[in-house]
Amino acid sequence: MGKSMKMPCVMDHYKVVILGAAVVGKSSLVMRFVKGKFHECQDTTIGAAFFTQTICIKDTVVKFEIWDTAGQERFHSLVSMYYRNAQAAVVVYDIQNQDSFQRAKTWLKELRKQAPPNIVIALAGNKADLSNIRVVKFDEAKQYAEENGLLFMETSAKTGLNVNDIFLAIAKKLPKNNNNQGSVNIKPNGNEPTQATKNCCK
């Protein structure tokens, strides 16, 4: 008997937009997910920055096309063109900053009005490594997320807490075979793999 042929994996592509006020750690969150790295002094995003990362769920490879948007108010009018046609969004706030949580609520209302109706939205309370000086209570944010049908996790770009997990949770909620381009063999893409890529497509 010959060796059984390995079935190629199916790749699905999804556009994900990262939203939130300035200095909540959006770029650090993305860099932790994509590169597995954290820098204390992260450059301010101008307009938006683009990244890609893949994770595997069973026999499907999910490729995230990530738009990390600027949080400064002067860029607000430009951000809508980035979440247009997005399949998912991560709205980030700083657990030390109540104003950033209120700003997150504003972004969520805007997404509900202007983004695709089936968009998957996650609420991320970032800087969880500083929970001892938190201002936004975990239960407050969790209740808001539950009332609005959002995924919710507290994350830490610094330690990596729940960073991979929140993207994995998004991937599990997204419709499969979205804009996929047929079965493909997996090749290294230059990005450091997330924990979810272990034992992929074996």
Unreliable parts: 180-202
Helical amount? 25-40%
Gyration radius (Cα, Å) is 17 Å
Question: How much beta, percentage-wise?
Answer: 25-35%
Q: How many β strands by DSSP? A: 7
Largest sheet: 7 strands, mixed
Number of individual domains: 1
- If you consult CATH, what is the topology? Rossmann fold
- What spatial form do the alpha-carbon principal axes imply? globular
CATH architecture: 3-Layer(aba) Sandwich
Number of alpha- plus pi-helical segments: 5
C-alpha end-to-end distance: 20 Å
Protein name: Ras-related protein Rab-5A-like
Family: Belongs to the small GTPase superfamily. Rab family.
Keywords: Nucleotide-binding
GO molecular function: GTP binding; GTPase activity
Description:
- The protein has 202 residues and is an alpha/beta fold.
- The protein contains 5 helices and 7 strands, in the order βαββαβαβαβαβ.
- β2 and β3 form a beta hairpin.
- The longest helix is centred in the middle third of the chain and has 17 residues, at 98-114.
- The radius of gyration is 17 Å and the shape is globular.
- The two termini are 20 Å apart.
- Mean pLDDT is 83; it is low at 180-202.
- Belongs to the small GTPase superfamily. Rab family.
- Pfam families: Ras.
- It comes from Drosophila albomicans (Fruit fly).
- One of its GO terms (molecular function) is GTPase activity.
